[in-house]
Every structure is written in C-alpha cells, then in structure tokens.
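Lab notebook: predicted structure, single chain.

Context: the supervisor wants predicted structures on file for every construct in the current expression panel, including those that have not yet been purified. This is the next one on the list. No modifications to the sequence; it matches the entry in the shared construct table.
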Amino acid sequence: MTRTLNRAETGDEALGHFTDVCKLICDPSREFREKLGLLFSTESETLGLSYGFLTRTEPATDTQTIEVAHGSHDLLQSGNTAPLSESYCRHTLNATDGCFHVADAQAEGFDDDPAHDRFGIESYVGSVVEFGGQTYGTFCFAAPEPLERPLSEVELDFVDLLASWASRELSVEATLERHRQRSERIEELATLVSHDLRNPLQTAQGHLEHLQNTVRDSLEHIDTAHRRMNDISGDLLTLATIDEPVEDHTPVDIESCVRATWKLVDTADATLETDLDGTVLADEGRLRRLLENLFRNAVEHGGSDTAVDVGATADGFYVADDGPGIPESEHQSVLEPGYTSKSGNTGLGLVIVRRIASAHGWKIAVGETETGGAKISFSGVQGSLTEPSG
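Prediction complete. Output recorded below exactly as produced.
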C-alpha cells in the first residue's frame, strides 16, 4: 500500500491530505466520536495500518478499554476491554516521548510479548492522549502484518498530532458537558423556586390578612412558613454549588468525621453505631453535609429514638436506620427534587446527598436493612476503608 505522507515526490498530494484532515477535525457539524471514526478509516489507509482505535487506559486496574475503533479485529472493537499489561499500549504509556512504534514485531523481538500473543498484531504505532492534565489513554493504528519499512518521522509526528487533537477534543467535550449540566441545574432550580416558594408565601400572606383576629395562631403559621422558606433558600443555594466536581480529594478519617457530624445534628434520643476504620478521599466539608442530611433524614422519619448505623462495604460505606424504611417503588424517586413524605420538609435533603456523591464520582443506592429500615449506600469510594470481617 502506498503511504502518501512518506512520498517526497507527492508533496502536493500530502499537503492536500493534511488540508482534508484539518477540514474534518474542524467541522462543527460532526461530533467528536464521529470525527474519530472517519479519521481512523482514512488514516489507516494513509499509514498502511488497517486498524485504528482510541483507548482509555487505567493502570491501577490493569485495564484497557476500546472507546472508538475501525477495522475488523475481533478484540479491537468499541467497548471491548483487555488487560493493559497484555497490550502494546503499555509500551506507549511508558515511552519517554509518549510515542511507540513497531514495524515488524517478530523481527524486532516482540514475538514473545504478551500483546503479540493476545492480539496477533505485527505492526503498531501509538501516541499518548491526555485529559485534565493526566493520561487518558492512547491513539493507535495497527495491522496483522508487518510494514515493509518503519514509519517515517513525518508519519510519527502526524500520529502524535492526531493524538494531541484528540486530547484537546476530550477537554472541549468535557467543558461542553459541564455547561449543559449547569444549564439543567439552573432550570431545575427555577422550577423548584416557582413551585416550592409559592405555597409558603401564599400561606404567609393569607395569615397576615387575618392577623388582627387570630394573632397568636397566625404568627405561628407565619413563623412556620418563613422557616420553611429559609430552609428552601438554604437548600437551593447548596444545590447551586454543591455538585461542582471535587478537584482536591484529601484523606478524611471517616469515623471521626461521622462522630463530629452527629454532634452537630439535633438527634434527640437517637443513637449512633459505627464500625469504621480508615480514610476516604473526599472534600471533608461536603462529606459532612452529606452525613448531616442523612442523619437528619433518619431522625425525622424514624423518630426521636431511632438507631443509626454507619458501616463500611467492599468499596464504600452506608448509612442505615431502624425506622419505617422506604418502599421499594420509591427507591429512585426519593433522590429526585421535591419528593417528601413528611409535611414541612423541603424535599431536597436526599437530592443534596445524591449531588454530593456525584461530585465525588460515587454511586448511590437506596435499599433496606434486614429489619426493614432505610439503607443508603455509596460505592466507588476511594481510600483505605476496611470492611468488617464479620
């Protein structure tokens, strides 16, 4: 196969090819992954390598995931995963210049490499893709047969350029997604303000008009309405800022944080049991707010003498109580704005909990204890928590 970029006698053709690539990657009508698919299709032919693919690599879990792919290789398809330690991409990540190239695997001594055994690839080139100041994965081309000659410096620089473009596009895509989510939050807040503030304001107005006849009763209603408006305003302000992604995770002694937060909540005669050992990586202020909302929710729904239990799981922790629990049909709706089963509540307590968990990258699940109480679990929590052996 003729490799256009390496033919000195076809300078005009190469320039035309670069122009076509620039037009494609700058096309505002196409999504990033659509552009990737087209690039892999055209540049596989340009480089003489029949497979093209973008990976996401996670060295901590020894995982390589194919994000976008071109070609007929069974293992190199979108969504497929493989051990990173058995892929050529590990060499790319370890390369000092962020680029790795093999023209003839067997001739260059890679016939015993785990990647050669798993994928049967004889030629490969990959360049590191970055995102958010960290390594995201690799931008690669490969083929089941060796190249007649190694890729030239021009061709290697071209692959590196495409990887740099992919890095920038990932950053742009993430920024656009944050703006989209922010717009959705603003719309949600507007709906909450319109719906939840209207009723207490109308209540306050109505009782003020009858103040002369029922002074004491009206003042109590007005005070209640104003208190609820204050709670709603506080929760809305929290919702507007609480789920910005946590950038600086710090180790937090989870048991100390749990006990300190418990002291700040009006728990009446409720009791706390905790069997936690270790730390979690979190924003301590937001973690305290998450625990505070869960403790307050448990006492409000379970009664002044409810028992609250905080413990560790295989990859996180949970907060449970011995109250009446949450019906299975409502396990998802309790995490949505406006849901409440108790008069006078804002219905935002567990929404804030969900948002804080999301900001940390944690998954939240609503369930029940063996005795039927409510159990809120968080998974994907990083740190050094130890799950009880018993």
